[in-house]
Amino acid sequence: MSSTTIAADAVDHEGFPADKSKTGGWVPAALILGIEICERLSTMGIAVNLVTYLGGTMHLPSAVSANTVTDFMGTSFLLCLLGGFLADSFLGRYKTIAIFSTIQAMGTGMLAITTKVPQLRPPPCAAHANCQTANGLQMGMLYLALYLIALGTGGLKSSVSGFGSDQFDERDEKEKSQMAYFFNRFFLFISIGTLAAVTVLVYLEDNVSRSLAYGICSLSMFIAIFIFFSGTRRYRYKKTVRSPVVQIFQVIAAAIRKRKMNVPYDINMLYETNHEASRIQHTDQFRFLDKAAIVAEDDFSEKKVAASPNPWNLCTVTRVEEVKMMARLLPIWATTIIFWTTYAQMITFSVDQASTMERSIGNFQIPAGSLNVFFVAAILITLGVYDRLIMPFWKKWKGKPGFTSLQRIAIGLVLSTIGMAAAALVEMKRLSVAKSAGRTTATLPISVFLLIPQFFLVGSGEAFIYTGQLDFFITQSPKGMKTMSTGLFLTTLSLGFFFSSMLVSIVKGATRSHRGEGWLADKINYGRLDLFYALLAVLGVINFVVYSICAVWYKPKKPNPAMEMGNVANGAGAEEKC
After folding, report:
1. How far apart are CA 64 and CA 60, in angstroms?
2. Cys bridge to 528: 17, 44, 299, 519, which one at CB 3.0-4.6 A?
3. Burial category of 566 from C-beta neighbours within 10 Å (exposed 0-12, middle 13-18, buried 19 and up)
4. Are residues 161 and 288 in the same domain?
5. Structural domain of residue 95, as residue ranges?
6. Could you tell me if 344 and 280 lie in one domain?
7. Membrane-spanning residues where (predicted)?
8. 18-24 long-range contacts, CB within 8 A, separation 24+
9. DSSP letters for 104-170
């Protein structure tokens, strides 16, 4: 095989250099996407309607139900760090996806059984005042199923997008262009999974059987796993070289050990052994870490002449720069958390709002959880417009295939903030109707379609911010840390959900009056959810200002001159062959 037919840094299932004509490309990437579609079908099918199950069947208060959902979702995404660490350090992405997708499917099956057995839920309310809350055993079994799902979801999500992008060679201009479109296609397909979850599954949960809906989720996941295994011979694999976490600690430890030494004016005096084509160019940010690459007298003693230096004492410039690259991601990482706090309201309090409003279309009543269909529709419409109109226009005008990842994140933050402002206004209207019609009225005379603006704005925001974050964290991270960086990105979702839980608890405690009610009352008709939404809008504005500063400060990784020369030469060679 010639060098032009071999994918860079990739092997086939037998460990030989990957042949582009036999491995990788759109078909293997699509087989990998099947896992993510079914994972999103299961997770969202559970999350968007879980708050109604916790309140209506398990008889938990509104705020407790909301926090249970956000804690479940937060744990799912927090465990992405574990999945990323295992994939990069030991298992590889393929095995990580296989193991944790199986765990996720088993957890969903257990949830189907838990919601089916009558002994695992409290008896129905004879009168609302006499509702019996679920006991410890009933909640324990529910939590066991949920957090088994969370473990599976967290383990596989960090590897799916990275393994999908592995099917494209970044050094091949044609495949690099295909990878840019892959991220949009990736989010488009998982949004289709979400659409099925908030329509078909939510309807089955509310009108047929929750256990049947969850059983369908489990079965679909097992089918997706089978399809995933069918592509084993066609995938491209990246070898696990070293633990990225250990590498980060080695650089930090070496820099601290040499903290009293001065970095030389000539950066060429810093330690470097990597081949020119694989080096990362030195940058001026985080200069303290450069101390890890300073060569000290005892780094190469007579006993160590034939051996490599201890990486806890001396690191190459490339290794230091890889740690710098991860450090540069952190400010962007921190300023995207608030978006997912906003997102959390769409599957908790917004569903609670919908359950009190008029949802009938003729003789059909829309399930409260299915209002998220407008959220998903906004994502699909936004992605379609961006893919078919904005990207081609931007390429002609600016010569680039669409907005940069940082620009997409910024757009997402703005849209979500406007969405919370719209939500506050709609809730003010809903509360005024509740006051005039009676706060105990089961269905208020106000159309549920007034909630569409908040779902649409936050949904459009997610279309921009999710693809922007995914692109940013994968393309701006070191080659050996891509899965871990994807896990880092997904922890923004986790921390957003956890911050939502914390904020709910703080606001509930701080605004509680002598009558026991506050902004977030147990029954939302007695609270001031509009003020809570307004608070999130204000936090969104402050966060956007901080994000803008961080985005200006951020410096993207420098291209390797040797690699660029190689690409130019390859391009020239290709032109000659044509």
Report:
1. 6
2. 519
3. middle
4. no
5. 3-240+324-556
6. no
7. 72-90, 97-114, 144-165, 186-205, 211-229, 329-346, 366-386, 406-426, 446-466, 487-511, 531-554
8. 18/236, 18/237, 20/169, 20/172, 20/175, 22/234, 23/167, 23/234, 23/235, 23/236, 24/166, 24/167, 24/168, 24/169, 24/175, 24/234, 24/235, 24/236
9. HHHHHHHHHHHHH-GGGSPPPPSSGGGPPPP-HHHHHHHHHHHHHHHHHHHHHHHHHHHHHHTTS-T
Tens of pLDDT, residues 141-189 = 888 999 999 899 888 887 887 788 788 877 777 776 677 677 667 767 7
Residues 328 and 305 reside in one and the same domain:
no
Task: Let me know if residue 125 belongs to a domain.
Answer: yes
Instruction: Please say which residue of 274, 292, 315 terminates a domain.
Output: 315
For 10, the 3-state DSSP assignment is strand
The residue among 249 and 567 whose pLDDT is bigger is 249
Structure confidence by residue, pLDDT tens digits, 465-515: 988 888 888 888 887 777 677 778 878 888 888 898 889 888 888 887 656
Looking at residue 455, its amino acid is: F
Same domain for 249 and 213: no
| 297 and 418, same domain (yes or no) | no
Closest by CA position to 289, among listed 242, 261, 324: 324
**Residue 569, domain member (yes or no):** no
23 within a domain of the structure (yes/no):
yes
Q: What are phi and psi of 156, to 5 degrees?
A: -90, -30
Interatomic CA distance for residues 331 and 492, integer angstroms: 12
Identify whether residues 261 and 376 lie together within a single domain.
Answer: no
Q: CATH number for the domain including 147?
A: 1.20.1250.20
Is 123 found in the same domain as 216? yes
Angle (CA) 451-456-461 rounded to 5° is 135
Query: Could you report the per-residue pLDDT of 337-362, keeping only the tens digit for each?
Result: 999 999 888 877 888 888 888 888 87
For the four alpha carbons of 495, 472, 458 and 209, in that order, the dihedral sign comes to negative
Are both 302 and 419 inside the same structural domain? no
Q: How many residues does the chain have?
A: 578
Tell me, yes or no, whether 572 lies in a domain: no
* CA-closest candidate to residue 164, choices 24, 40, 18, 5: 24
* Boundary-marking domain end, from 264, 288, 315: 315
Count structural domains, the chain: 2
Q: How confident is the model at residue 569 (pLDDT cuts 50, 70, 90)?
A: very low
